Amino acid sequence: MKVLLFSFVLGLLVASQGEAQTDASQLTGRWKSHYTAADNIEKITEGGPFHTFLRYMKFDEENGTALFQFYFKEDGECRGDYTTGTKDGDVYSFQYAGHTEFQVVRVENNALLADVINVDEHGKETQLVQLFGIGDDVGPKCKEEFYNMVREKGIPEENILNFIDQDDCPEEWEKK
Q1: How many CB atoms lie within 10 A of CB 174?
Q2: Which has the least CB within 10 A, 84, 109, 121, 134?
């Protein structure tokens, strides 16, 4: 446990170095979805491709890959799934719900703020902002940064969904 905590603190230290290149592999571990906002609300409501409950992110800097494990709900039942992507610069690209680009914007304490762009199979682009946490609380400062980024992107605040309060999927991820 101490090694995991040290690795996370080291990752935060690297992330706080401004121009220094962040080693995303330091962010590998258990994460949970807290809040998601999208300019197309249908993408994040139940049944939408981004109505997901994250459980784990793995960033492999050496190979330039990422793995996300998550749950989605189908007929009220939690179903496990995953997606893998490749790194180009500081953006991870996934073939999920079309083409999706994921960029870590900020890591602080126990929270990760991400900027996501999805272009679906029909060419429709959706802007998303996501806030993930290691535990069940990310703190008011991280929530404020999330809301600021949502406003900067021009996403209406009514298009923000609280995922942490509706997450009743198993803590441990399993593919179903």
Answers
A1: 11
A2: 121
